[in-house]
């Protein structure tokens, strides 16, 4: 199965659909990675704070697919911000995963009260130059945060991973990303199921014969977002991947757009430190 890929602003490409390892127990991570790769996924989203980078590496090594066919993301956690500390955090992640390089390294949160995300960004630029990471980006950054790191360094993140689902559609951020060539990647893309019973989602599911989850994941793809749903079950992994044989109509996309409620399921980047 050929999956769509998105072109990053550094010229590299990445799969549009992957799966995330948030809240996947460490002892199950290697199995989930193997099953995900076997199902057809080629992008895996991890993070130091998830506590399962060792399992990510184990799963990769036992998956039976060449390393250059799988796109691996991980992230620098909040307590490792700052130029020197972030550089060490990158090394620590590489050691735990067992790789000389990851495809994408993100700053997990801006943590504005710490005032360190600019120095952390400079550390990632240096790690990229040293070949330890292929591409660099951010997560949960607001427009003002993005403007600062771009203005101070001239280096535009390839991607910003943000909470995005039908009840939090992030139009302002998506517009900024589009203007600057930054990929929008959606975390908690199903919004904890809060839109599953909404009339526009139910109507699209009835027309297409797909589940509400599949409808919402397809909505993300048609917005142009990269998306990383999570499942620890082989059946769930397969269901989330089965979204390339149908499309939502313009009317269905417009109807889902009306579900915007400014409703977060996770922390607010303005105050999470």
TrEMBL record:
Span of domain NADP-dependent oxidoreductase: 17-259
Keyword Oxidoreductase listed: yes
UniProt keyword annotations, A-Z: NADP, Oxidoreductase
Domain of life the protein comes from: Bacteria
A Pfam cross-reference name: Aldo_ket_red
Claim: Oxidoreductase is one of the keywords in the record: yes
Family label: Belongs to the aldo/keto reductase family.
Protein's name in the database: Aldo/keto reductase
Lineage per the UniProt record: Bacteria, Pseudomonadati, Pseudomonadota, Alphaproteobacteria, Rhodobacterales
